[in-house]
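Researcher: Next entry in the queue.
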Amino acid sequence: MSRLQNKIAVITGAGTGIGRACMQLFAGQGATVVGCSRTQRNLDDTLALVTGEGGKGMVVPADLSSEAGAQKLIDATLAEYGRIDVLVNAAGVGYSWANESEGSMGSVTDTPPDKWREVMAIDLDSVYLVSRLAIQAMQKQGSGAVVNIASVLGFVGNPDAHAYTAAKGAIINLTRSMCATYTADGIRTNCVAPGFIDTPMIASHVSLFDDEAVADRLCPMHRPGQPEEIAQGCLFLASDEASYVNGTTLVIDGGTLARI
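Model: Structure for this entry, 260 residues:
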């Protein structure tokens, strides 16, 4: 079954984790995929996985926290393929970013203003900057599907990572607003809120599941999810199977929010 046959799908954060899993799954379902992240080496590895499985597409290295980076991605996609049918906004940073940018994953009082702006630019501004341009292309076509990646931490309070949680909460409501505005143009906008997913973003926290008591508090299924499990939700929302799904947030968390 080819659920995205002949679709052009732009996927940000494609170098690792959920973005990479979406690239592989979408290509396997007939889409031509365009992946973007900041690191060329990671993108090359992702594209090799895609083409090695018989998929097709290309990659564009760019910093999507900047207007120029978003423009580079969309311009390259339209120049090569002429349209954009699907956009998955998976680019972002999480707990592992603290290893590269000290102070970025703290509470409000522990987060310097420049670190706050840094995380918000990567996790939230990128969604705005890429969506703004991709939607203009979709409006000309009269169709399109946008899938934003948020987090369960966009729904609940958290003792740290306040810039991250604020960005993810904003993405959830931005999704609703985009739905309200662009449905008339034939564009659906939905959101996926993952729980604890075994990606480089939370690598420092995955070991918490080794303690059975802690694992029970984190998730009723006692394990982190896999990027491929999130990609399946993104595929559904991007496909015509979700033709009447619009403005919603699909929580994929193994039951974490059910216990909070």
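Model: The CA atoms of residues 18 and 230 lie 7 Å apart.
Researcher: Noted, moving on.
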